[in-house]
TrEMBL record:
Family annotation (PROSITE patterns): TCP1_1, TCP1_2, TCP1_3
Any one GO molecular-function label of the UniProt entry: ATP binding
SUPFAM superfamilies: GroEL equatorial domain-like (SSF48592)
Keywords for the protein's UniProt record, in alphabetical order: ATP-binding, Chaperone, Nucleotide-binding
Organism: Medicago truncatula (Barrel medic)
Family: Belongs to the TCP-1 chaperonin family.
Protein name: T-complex protein 1 subunit gamma
Length: 171
């Protein structure tokens, strides 16, 4: 078996350990903080300049993050997380970034107490299992043929979108 050889610029150096963990967490939290105010019933719009110099006003987290020119690898990962959420689900890009930022914020306290990152990851995986079990206990079946149930479900899904102001006209 042949080992691979990495050729890096002389100016680059490889770092590891808690200092790097903190830097990665801070960069990721900075991304979450950029779009945090665009979530919820009192959300605010962001005004951006696009690449062609035009002004874009939006509260779409994924659209905001696409306009950022980010160099930090951890921050880029957060933007990729948003893009993946948009591609796979079509919504929740802001929520997933804020949730990830908060999870990293909590993890940072454990890193400060010298917990190994794999221990923190195992704890998050256990919390995920517990959350899924709790959701399964309270889940209710939905009758897809019941127009009232379906309208209520759709209304709750688009409640924070601009189209919600026209709800009476849509249905």
């Amino acid at each position: 078996m042949q080992s691979s050889v990495l050729v890096l610029k002389d100016s680059l150096k490889r770092e590891s350990g808690p200092k790097v963990h903190h830097a990665n967490i801070q960069a990721s939290k900075a991304v979450a903080d950029i779009i945090r105010t665009t979530l919820g019933p009192r959300s605010m719009l962001k005004m951006l300049l696009d690449a062609s110099g035009g002004i874009v006003v939006t509260n779409d987290g994924n659209a905001i993050l696409r306009e950022l020119d980010i160099a930090h690898p951890a921050a880029k990962s957060m933007i990729e997380l948003s893009r993946t959420q948009d591609e796979e689900v079509g919504d929740g890009t802001t929520s997933v970034i804020i949730l990830a930022g908060e999870m990293l914020h909590v993890a940072e306290a454990f890193i400060d107490k010298n917990y190994h990152p794999t221990v923190i990851c195992r704890a998050y995986n256990k919390a995920l299992e517990d959350a899924i079990a709790a959701i399964d206990k309270i889940a209710m079946p939905i009758d897809a043929q019941d127009r009232g149930q379906m309208l209520g479900l759709v209304k709750s899904c688009i409640g924070t979108k601009f189209t919600s102001q026209f709800w009476g006209f849509n249905c």
